[in-house]
Amino acid sequence: MPKGSNVPVPTTALRVEIGWRSGPGVPDTDASALLLAGGKVRSDADFVFYNQPQHASGALRYEGKQNSGAAVTDTLAVDLARVEPAIETVVLAASADGGAFGQVPGLYVEVKDAARGTVVARFDSEGATVETAFVLGEFYRRQGAWKFRAVGQGYSSGLEGLATDFGIAVDEPQHTAPAAPRAAAPPPPAAPPFTPAPVAPPATVPAPPPPAPPAAPVRLTKVTLTKNAPSVSLTKQGGTSGALRVNLNWQVRKQFSGWGSKRGRAVAMHSDLDLDLCALYELADGSKGVVQALGNAFGALHQPPFIHLDGDDRTGAVASGENLTVNLDHKNAFRRILVFVTIYEGARSFADLHATVTLQPQYGAAIDFSLDECTVPSPVCALALITNTGGDLVVQREARYLVPERGVSPQRTVDYAYGWGMNWTPGRK
Protein backbone atom coordinates (compact mmCIF):
# COMPACT_ATOMS: atom_id res chain seq x y z
CA MET A 1 0.00 0.00 0.00
CA PRO A 2 1.26 3.53 -0.71
CA LYS A 3 1.36 6.05 2.12
CA GLY A 4 -2.03 7.64 2.73
CA SER A 5 -4.05 4.92 0.98
CA ASN A 6 -6.76 2.86 2.67
CA VAL A 7 -8.44 -0.50 2.29
CA PRO A 8 -11.52 -2.14 3.90
CA VAL A 9 -10.77 -4.77 6.56
CA PRO A 10 -13.07 -7.52 7.88
CA THR A 11 -14.54 -7.26 11.36
CA THR A 12 -12.92 -10.48 12.46
CA ALA A 13 -9.96 -11.47 14.62
CA LEU A 14 -6.86 -9.87 13.11
CA ARG A 15 -3.12 -10.13 13.72
CA VAL A 16 -1.08 -6.97 13.26
CA GLU A 17 2.62 -7.69 12.72
CA ILE A 18 5.19 -4.91 12.85
CA GLY A 19 8.35 -6.37 11.35
CA TRP A 20 11.94 -5.46 10.47
CA ARG A 21 15.32 -7.05 9.82
CA SER A 22 17.68 -7.47 12.76
CA GLY A 23 21.44 -7.22 12.66
CA PRO A 24 24.45 -5.49 14.23
CA GLY A 25 23.62 -1.96 15.34
CA VAL A 26 19.86 -2.35 14.74
CA PRO A 27 17.90 -1.00 17.74
CA ASP A 28 15.10 -3.01 19.30
CA THR A 29 11.62 -2.05 18.12
CA ASP A 30 8.33 -2.30 20.02
CA ALA A 31 4.75 -2.32 18.75
CA SER A 32 1.95 -0.42 20.49
CA ALA A 33 -1.63 0.67 19.87
CA LEU A 34 -3.84 3.53 21.04
CA LEU A 35 -7.65 3.60 21.02
CA LEU A 36 -8.85 7.11 20.26
CA ALA A 37 -12.13 8.99 20.70
CA GLY A 38 -12.04 12.50 19.21
CA GLY A 39 -8.35 12.11 18.40
CA LYS A 40 -7.28 11.40 22.00
CA VAL A 41 -7.34 8.46 24.42
CA ARG A 42 -10.14 8.55 26.98
CA SER A 43 -7.68 7.48 29.68
CA ASP A 44 -4.26 5.86 29.97
CA ALA A 45 -6.04 2.48 29.84
CA ASP A 46 -6.54 3.03 26.09
CA PHE A 47 -2.80 2.53 25.51
CA VAL A 48 -1.73 -1.08 24.76
CA PHE A 49 2.00 -1.88 24.78
CA TYR A 50 4.60 -4.10 26.49
CA ASN A 51 3.92 -2.72 30.01
CA GLN A 52 0.11 -2.72 29.56
CA PRO A 53 -0.47 -5.70 27.27
CA GLN A 54 -4.28 -5.99 27.18
CA HIS A 55 -7.18 -3.58 26.78
CA ALA A 56 -10.08 -4.00 29.20
CA SER A 57 -12.54 -4.48 26.33
CA GLY A 58 -10.61 -7.46 25.01
CA ALA A 59 -10.31 -5.73 21.62
CA LEU A 60 -6.50 -5.46 21.71
CA ARG A 61 -3.71 -7.57 23.13
CA TYR A 62 0.05 -7.17 22.85
CA GLU A 63 1.53 -10.62 22.09
CA GLY A 64 5.25 -9.88 21.85
CA LYS A 65 8.16 -10.66 19.56
CA GLN A 66 9.15 -13.59 17.40
CA ASN A 67 12.57 -14.10 15.81
CA SER A 68 13.03 -16.07 12.62
CA GLY A 69 16.60 -15.77 11.47
CA ALA A 70 17.21 -12.11 10.65
CA ALA A 71 13.46 -11.31 10.56
CA VAL A 72 11.78 -10.00 13.71
CA THR A 73 8.06 -9.37 14.26
CA ASP A 74 6.23 -7.75 17.15
CA THR A 75 2.56 -8.71 17.21
CA LEU A 76 -0.78 -7.25 18.31
CA ALA A 77 -4.02 -9.26 18.34
CA VAL A 78 -6.99 -7.09 17.29
CA ASP A 79 -10.70 -7.91 17.43
CA LEU A 80 -12.52 -4.99 15.80
CA ALA A 81 -15.93 -6.45 16.73
CA ARG A 82 -15.09 -5.80 20.41
CA VAL A 83 -13.94 -2.20 19.98
CA GLU A 84 -16.28 0.01 22.02
CA PRO A 85 -18.68 2.29 20.08
CA ALA A 86 -17.02 5.44 21.45
CA ILE A 87 -13.70 4.51 19.83
CA GLU A 88 -13.29 5.95 16.34
CA THR A 89 -9.65 5.10 15.58
CA VAL A 90 -7.09 2.47 16.59
CA VAL A 91 -3.58 3.78 15.99
CA LEU A 92 -0.81 1.24 15.27
CA ALA A 93 2.65 2.48 16.22
CA ALA A 94 6.26 1.40 16.62
CA SER A 95 9.05 2.83 18.78
CA ALA A 96 12.80 2.28 18.58
CA ASP A 97 14.73 1.49 21.77
CA GLY A 98 18.41 2.46 21.63
CA GLY A 99 18.52 4.16 18.25
CA ALA A 100 16.53 5.72 15.41
CA PHE A 101 14.44 4.19 12.64
CA GLY A 102 17.07 5.18 10.11
CA GLN A 103 18.99 2.21 11.58
CA VAL A 104 16.01 -0.20 11.27
CA PRO A 105 15.90 -1.86 7.83
CA GLY A 106 12.75 -3.29 6.26
CA LEU A 107 10.21 -1.73 8.65
CA TYR A 108 6.62 -2.66 7.78
CA VAL A 109 3.16 -3.22 9.23
CA GLU A 110 1.05 -6.14 8.03
CA VAL A 111 -2.57 -6.96 8.87
CA LYS A 112 -3.60 -10.61 8.65
CA ASP A 113 -6.81 -12.54 9.10
CA ALA A 114 -5.97 -14.46 12.28
CA ALA A 115 -7.99 -17.54 11.36
CA ARG A 116 -6.92 -17.91 7.74
CA GLY A 117 -3.46 -16.37 7.87
CA THR A 118 -4.17 -14.34 4.72
CA VAL A 119 -2.76 -10.82 4.34
CA VAL A 120 -5.43 -8.11 4.44
CA ALA A 121 -3.15 -5.07 4.20
CA ARG A 122 0.55 -4.24 4.25
CA PHE A 123 2.49 -0.97 4.37
CA ASP A 124 6.28 -0.78 3.98
CA SER A 125 7.74 2.29 5.67
CA GLU A 126 10.69 3.86 3.83
CA GLY A 127 12.95 6.88 4.13
CA ALA A 128 13.25 7.04 7.94
CA THR A 129 16.15 9.03 9.42
CA VAL A 130 16.16 10.38 13.00
CA GLU A 131 12.64 9.29 13.95
CA THR A 132 12.40 7.20 17.13
CA ALA A 133 8.65 6.49 16.90
CA PHE A 134 6.26 5.93 14.00
CA VAL A 135 2.53 5.79 13.48
CA LEU A 136 2.59 3.15 10.76
CA GLY A 137 -1.12 2.70 10.26
CA GLU A 138 -4.57 2.97 11.79
CA PHE A 139 -7.97 1.30 11.78
CA TYR A 140 -10.87 3.76 11.52
CA ARG A 141 -14.64 3.54 11.30
CA ARG A 142 -16.42 4.72 8.17
CA GLN A 143 -20.21 4.29 7.77
CA GLY A 144 -20.36 1.37 10.18
CA ALA A 145 -17.42 -0.49 8.63
CA TRP A 146 -13.70 -0.56 9.39
CA LYS A 147 -10.84 0.48 7.12
CA PHE A 148 -7.06 0.41 7.42
CA ARG A 149 -5.02 3.47 6.42
CA ALA A 150 -1.26 3.52 5.78
CA VAL A 151 0.00 6.54 7.76
CA GLY A 152 3.83 6.63 8.07
CA GLN A 153 4.08 9.62 10.44
CA GLY A 154 7.35 9.81 12.40
CA TYR A 155 8.27 11.33 15.76
CA SER A 156 11.74 12.29 16.95
CA SER A 157 10.63 12.27 20.61
CA GLY A 158 10.22 8.49 20.91
CA LEU A 159 7.41 6.55 22.50
CA GLU A 160 7.01 9.23 25.17
CA GLY A 161 6.37 11.96 22.61
CA LEU A 162 3.97 9.79 20.63
CA ALA A 163 2.04 8.78 23.75
CA THR A 164 1.74 12.31 25.17
CA ASP A 165 0.63 13.62 21.77
CA PHE A 166 -2.44 11.37 22.05
CA GLY A 167 -3.19 12.33 25.68
CA ILE A 168 -1.23 9.73 27.71
CA ALA A 169 0.21 10.81 31.07
CA VAL A 170 3.75 9.40 31.10
CA ASP A 171 5.69 8.58 34.28
CA GLU A 172 9.15 9.85 33.35
CA PRO A 173 11.63 11.71 35.58
CA GLN A 174 11.50 15.45 35.14
CA HIS A 175 14.59 17.63 35.65
CA THR A 176 13.88 21.22 36.62
CA ALA A 177 16.15 24.03 37.65
CA PRO A 178 15.88 25.15 41.28
CA ALA A 179 13.65 28.16 41.78
CA ALA A 180 15.43 31.46 42.40
CA PRO A 181 15.10 32.78 45.96
CA ARG A 182 12.41 35.40 46.29
CA ALA A 183 13.05 38.71 48.00
CA ALA A 184 11.32 39.15 51.33
CA ALA A 185 8.04 41.06 50.99
CA PRO A 186 7.72 44.31 53.01
CA PRO A 187 5.52 44.07 56.10
CA PRO A 188 1.88 45.07 55.47
CA PRO A 189 0.72 48.43 56.90
CA ALA A 190 -1.04 48.33 60.24
CA ALA A 191 -4.82 48.12 59.96
CA PRO A 192 -6.85 50.92 61.59
CA PRO A 193 -8.76 49.98 64.75
CA PHE A 194 -12.43 49.17 64.29
CA THR A 195 -15.41 47.93 66.29
CA PRO A 196 -16.89 44.74 64.85
CA ALA A 197 -20.63 44.73 64.26
CA PRO A 198 -22.68 41.76 65.49
CA VAL A 199 -23.25 39.18 62.77
CA ALA A 200 -25.50 36.18 62.52
CA PRO A 201 -23.81 32.77 62.87
CA PRO A 202 -22.87 31.33 59.48
CA ALA A 203 -25.01 28.61 58.00
CA THR A 204 -23.52 25.12 58.17
CA VAL A 205 -22.34 24.01 54.75
CA PRO A 206 -21.28 20.38 54.33
CA ALA A 207 -17.67 19.97 53.27
CA PRO A 208 -17.22 18.83 49.67
CA PRO A 209 -16.02 15.24 49.21
CA PRO A 210 -12.27 14.88 48.74
CA PRO A 211 -11.19 14.71 45.10
CA ALA A 212 -10.46 11.29 43.67
CA PRO A 213 -6.74 10.53 43.55
CA PRO A 214 -5.27 10.92 40.06
CA ALA A 215 -4.64 7.76 38.09
CA ALA A 216 -1.04 6.56 38.09
CA PRO A 217 0.75 7.64 34.92
CA VAL A 218 1.87 5.07 32.38
CA ARG A 219 5.42 3.81 32.79
CA LEU A 220 7.26 3.35 29.51
CA THR A 221 10.55 2.07 30.86
CA LYS A 222 11.74 -1.51 30.54
CA VAL A 223 14.20 -3.10 32.95
CA THR A 224 17.05 -5.19 31.55
CA LEU A 225 19.03 -7.22 34.06
CA THR A 226 22.75 -7.70 33.46
CA LYS A 227 25.76 -9.15 35.27
CA ASN A 228 26.53 -5.71 36.68
CA ALA A 229 22.90 -4.96 37.61
CA PRO A 230 21.40 -8.42 38.22
CA SER A 231 18.41 -7.70 40.51
CA VAL A 232 15.33 -5.50 40.72
CA SER A 233 12.44 -5.00 43.15
CA LEU A 234 9.00 -5.78 41.77
CA THR A 235 7.52 -3.30 44.25
CA LYS A 236 9.68 -0.45 42.94
CA GLN A 237 8.58 -1.33 39.41
CA GLY A 238 4.90 -1.27 40.38
CA GLY A 239 4.41 -5.04 40.10
CA THR A 240 2.67 -5.72 43.40
CA SER A 241 -0.51 -7.49 42.29
CA GLY A 242 -2.13 -9.31 39.42
CA ALA A 243 -0.40 -11.87 37.22
CA LEU A 244 3.34 -12.04 36.63
CA ARG A 245 3.95 -13.74 33.28
CA VAL A 246 7.34 -15.38 32.78
CA ASN A 247 8.19 -16.10 29.14
CA LEU A 248 11.11 -18.00 27.66
CA ASN A 249 11.81 -17.71 23.95
CA TRP A 250 14.76 -19.00 22.03
CA GLN A 251 16.32 -19.23 18.61
CA VAL A 252 18.53 -22.10 17.48
CA ARG A 253 21.50 -20.64 15.61
CA LYS A 254 22.55 -23.96 14.06
CA GLN A 255 20.55 -27.00 13.09
CA PHE A 256 22.25 -30.34 13.69
CA SER A 257 21.19 -33.76 14.92
CA GLY A 258 22.88 -35.69 17.71
CA TRP A 259 26.11 -35.00 19.59
CA GLY A 260 29.53 -35.10 18.00
CA SER A 261 32.94 -33.48 17.89
CA LYS A 262 34.75 -31.11 15.60
CA ARG A 263 38.53 -30.94 15.79
CA GLY A 264 38.43 -32.49 19.23
CA ARG A 265 35.79 -30.07 20.57
CA ALA A 266 32.34 -31.25 21.66
CA VAL A 267 29.47 -29.52 19.86
CA ALA A 268 25.72 -29.53 20.51
CA MET A 269 23.49 -30.96 17.79
CA HIS A 270 19.93 -29.53 17.60
CA SER A 271 17.03 -31.05 15.73
CA ASP A 272 13.51 -31.08 17.21
CA LEU A 273 14.46 -29.06 20.26
CA ASP A 274 12.09 -29.26 23.25
CA LEU A 275 12.83 -26.94 26.19
CA ASP A 276 10.78 -27.06 29.39
CA LEU A 277 10.24 -24.01 31.58
CA CYS A 278 9.99 -25.05 35.25
CA ALA A 279 9.84 -23.52 38.73
CA LEU A 280 10.89 -24.74 42.16
CA TYR A 281 8.88 -23.04 44.89
CA GLU A 282 9.02 -22.73 48.65
CA LEU A 283 5.99 -21.19 50.35
CA ALA A 284 5.84 -19.23 53.58
CA ASP A 285 4.31 -22.24 55.36
CA GLY A 286 7.40 -24.32 54.50
CA SER A 287 5.83 -26.43 51.76
CA LYS A 288 7.97 -27.04 48.67
CA GLY A 289 7.39 -28.38 45.19
CA VAL A 290 8.00 -28.06 41.48
CA VAL A 291 5.89 -26.79 38.57
CA GLN A 292 6.81 -28.49 35.28
CA ALA A 293 5.38 -30.35 32.29
CA LEU A 294 7.17 -33.53 33.38
CA GLY A 295 4.68 -35.55 35.40
CA ASN A 296 1.92 -33.08 34.42
CA ALA A 297 2.77 -30.94 37.47
CA PHE A 298 1.34 -27.77 35.91
CA GLY A 299 0.49 -26.13 39.26
CA ALA A 300 -2.48 -23.84 39.98
CA LEU A 301 -2.95 -20.09 39.83
CA HIS A 302 -5.73 -19.51 42.40
CA GLN A 303 -4.69 -22.04 45.00
CA PRO A 304 -1.30 -23.17 46.31
CA PRO A 305 1.29 -22.95 44.87
CA PHE A 306 -0.25 -19.94 43.01
CA ILE A 307 2.04 -20.73 40.06
CA HIS A 308 0.81 -22.20 36.78
CA LEU A 309 2.64 -23.48 33.71
CA ASP A 310 0.54 -22.48 30.71
CA GLY A 311 1.60 -25.28 28.41
CA ASP A 312 4.44 -27.10 26.67
CA ASP A 313 5.85 -25.50 23.51
CA ARG A 314 8.55 -26.51 21.02
CA THR A 315 8.79 -23.35 18.92
CA GLY A 316 10.39 -20.76 21.20
CA ALA A 317 7.91 -18.11 20.02
CA VAL A 318 7.07 -15.28 22.41
CA ALA A 319 3.32 -15.33 21.82
CA SER A 320 2.78 -19.08 22.20
CA GLY A 321 6.04 -20.31 23.73
CA GLU A 322 6.96 -21.46 27.21
CA ASN A 323 5.00 -19.33 29.67
CA LEU A 324 4.67 -19.57 33.42
CA THR A 325 2.34 -17.34 35.48
CA VAL A 326 2.75 -16.30 39.13
CA ASN A 327 -0.25 -14.88 41.05
CA LEU A 328 1.13 -11.76 42.76
CA ASP A 329 -2.15 -11.30 44.64
CA HIS A 330 -0.73 -14.01 46.92
CA LYS A 331 2.84 -12.68 47.04
CA ASN A 332 2.95 -13.00 50.83
CA ALA A 333 2.49 -16.77 50.41
CA PHE A 334 5.87 -17.07 48.68
CA ARG A 335 9.25 -17.49 50.31
CA ARG A 336 11.23 -18.06 47.12
CA ILE A 337 10.71 -19.20 43.53
CA LEU A 338 13.46 -20.46 41.23
CA VAL A 339 12.61 -20.39 37.53
CA PHE A 340 14.74 -22.75 35.45
CA VAL A 341 14.75 -24.47 32.07
CA THR A 342 15.70 -28.00 31.05
CA ILE A 343 16.31 -29.61 27.68
CA TYR A 344 13.82 -32.45 27.41
CA GLU A 345 14.95 -33.65 23.98
CA GLY A 346 16.60 -32.51 20.78
CA ALA A 347 19.99 -31.48 22.23
CA ARG A 348 22.40 -32.24 25.04
CA SER A 349 23.50 -28.66 25.67
CA PHE A 350 22.40 -25.04 25.42
CA ALA A 351 25.33 -24.31 23.09
CA ASP A 352 24.38 -22.29 19.99
CA LEU A 353 21.07 -21.33 21.57
CA HIS A 354 20.02 -17.70 21.87
CA ALA A 355 17.41 -17.39 24.63
CA THR A 356 15.70 -14.43 26.27
CA VAL A 357 13.69 -14.35 29.50
CA THR A 358 10.93 -11.78 30.05
CA LEU A 359 9.02 -11.23 33.28
CA GLN A 360 5.92 -9.13 32.58
CA PRO A 361 3.93 -7.97 35.62
CA GLN A 362 0.30 -7.13 34.97
CA TYR A 363 1.03 -3.76 36.55
CA GLY A 364 4.55 -2.35 36.20
CA ALA A 365 7.56 -2.40 33.95
CA ALA A 366 8.67 -5.47 32.02
CA ILE A 367 11.89 -7.14 33.18
CA ASP A 368 14.04 -9.02 30.69
CA PHE A 369 17.50 -10.47 30.22
CA SER A 370 19.40 -12.68 27.80
CA LEU A 371 21.28 -15.85 28.60
CA ASP A 372 25.04 -15.86 28.24
CA GLU A 373 26.84 -18.07 25.74
CA CYS A 374 26.88 -21.66 26.98
CA THR A 375 30.41 -23.14 26.93
CA VAL A 376 29.77 -26.32 28.96
CA PRO A 377 27.69 -29.46 28.19
CA SER A 378 24.73 -28.18 30.24
CA PRO A 379 21.14 -29.45 29.80
CA VAL A 380 19.73 -27.25 32.60
CA CYS A 381 19.93 -23.53 33.33
CA ALA A 382 18.76 -21.60 36.39
CA LEU A 383 17.10 -18.46 34.99
CA ALA A 384 15.80 -16.25 37.81
CA LEU A 385 15.41 -16.41 41.59
CA ILE A 386 12.43 -14.53 43.07
CA THR A 387 12.79 -13.97 46.82
CA ASN A 388 10.35 -12.49 49.32
CA THR A 389 12.29 -9.98 51.40
CA GLY A 390 10.04 -8.27 53.91
CA GLY A 391 6.98 -8.42 51.68
CA ASP A 392 8.86 -7.23 48.59
CA LEU A 393 9.59 -9.69 45.79
CA VAL A 394 13.10 -9.24 44.41
CA VAL A 395 13.97 -10.71 41.01
CA GLN A 396 17.57 -11.90 40.68
CA ARG A 397 19.05 -12.78 37.30
CA GLU A 398 20.82 -16.15 37.58
CA ALA A 399 21.55 -17.26 33.97
CA ARG A 400 23.54 -20.13 35.48
CA TYR A 401 24.30 -23.22 33.41
CA LEU A 402 24.59 -26.42 35.47
CA VAL A 403 26.24 -29.72 34.54
CA PRO A 404 24.64 -32.77 36.21
CA GLU A 405 26.78 -35.52 37.63
CA ARG A 406 26.45 -38.92 35.99
CA GLY A 407 23.02 -40.41 36.71
CA VAL A 408 21.65 -37.21 38.30
CA SER A 409 18.59 -35.58 36.69
CA PRO A 410 18.56 -31.88 35.72
CA GLN A 411 15.86 -31.19 38.33
CA ARG A 412 17.85 -32.79 41.12
CA THR A 413 20.92 -30.85 39.94
CA VAL A 414 19.06 -27.55 40.35
CA ASP A 415 17.80 -28.70 43.76
CA TYR A 416 21.36 -29.47 44.94
CA ALA A 417 22.70 -26.15 43.62
CA TYR A 418 20.09 -24.08 45.48
CA GLY A 419 19.52 -26.25 48.55
CA TRP A 420 15.83 -27.00 48.05
CA GLY A 421 16.03 -30.41 49.75
CA MET A 422 13.30 -32.31 47.86
CA ASN A 423 12.91 -36.02 47.07
CA TRP A 424 12.85 -36.82 43.35
CA THR A 425 11.39 -39.75 41.41
CA PRO A 426 11.47 -40.45 37.64
CA GLY A 427 8.65 -38.92 35.59
CA ARG A 428 7.50 -38.41 32.00
CA LYS A 429 5.15 -36.21 30.02
From TrEMBL:
<feature type="compositionally biased region" description="Pro residues">
    <location>
        <begin position="184"/>
        <end position="211"/>
    </location>
</feature>
<feature type="domain" description="TerD">
    <location>
        <begin position="2"/>
        <end position="166"/>
    </location>
</feature>
<dbReference type="InterPro" id="IPR017115">
    <property type="entry name" value="Tellurite_resistance_TerA"/>
</dbReference>
<feature type="region of interest" description="Disordered">
    <location>
        <begin position="176"/>
        <end position="211"/>
    </location>
</feature>
<dbReference type="InterPro" id="IPR051324">
    <property type="entry name" value="Stress/Tellurium_Resist"/>
</dbReference>
<dbReference type="InterPro" id="IPR003325">
    <property type="entry name" value="TerD"/>
</dbReference>
<dbReference type="Pfam" id="PF02342">
    <property type="entry name" value="TerD"/>
</dbReference>
<protein>
    <submittedName>
        <fullName>Tellurium resistance</fullName>
    </submittedName>
</protein>
<comment type="similarity">
    <text>Belongs to the CAPAB/TerDEXZ family.</text>
</comment>
